[in-house]
Design goal:
Blueprint lengths: L5 H8 L15 E8 L5 E11 L2 E9 L4 H16 L3 H11 L10
Antiparallel strand pairs: 1-2, 2-3
Helix pairs in contact: 2-3
Length: 107
């Protein structure tokens, strides 16, 4: 998945929204979906959607690894930081995690 596909990713993150519907209150939601290319390669997207300052936002982590618990913990932490108005802390948290290898099973 690359940045050229970013504009179509929004349809997966917000499939149920129309331009006329604007939620005024909503608890954070966590979900995932899988993208499969024509060669059968899968990419798993782990997402959180949340309302902040009246604007619906989404965080999406995309990986070839099917590790829902691992990625959901990362999203939960980053989402909580953003909802607590600690955007820069959330950004640093995600940037810090990015270069690290995945944990071994059981770690």
């Amino acid at each position: 998945f690359n940045a050229d596909h970013e504009c179509t990713l929004k349809y997966f993150c917000f499939p149920d929204l129309s331009p006329f519907s604007r939620p005024s209150k909503m608890a954070p939601e966590y979900f995932r979906f899988t993208l499969t290319d024509m060669h059968g390669r899968r990419q798993h997207a782990y997402c959180s959607r949340f309302l902040r300052k009246g604007v619906l936002n989404a965080l999406c982590l995309i990986s070839s690894f099917d590790l829902i618990d691992f990625y959901q913990r990362i999203l939960l932490t980053a989402t909580e930081m953003i909802l607590s108005y600690k955007d820069e802390d959330a950004r640093r948290f995600l940037i810090e995690l990015y270069p690290h290898r995945l944990p071994n099973p059981g770690d």
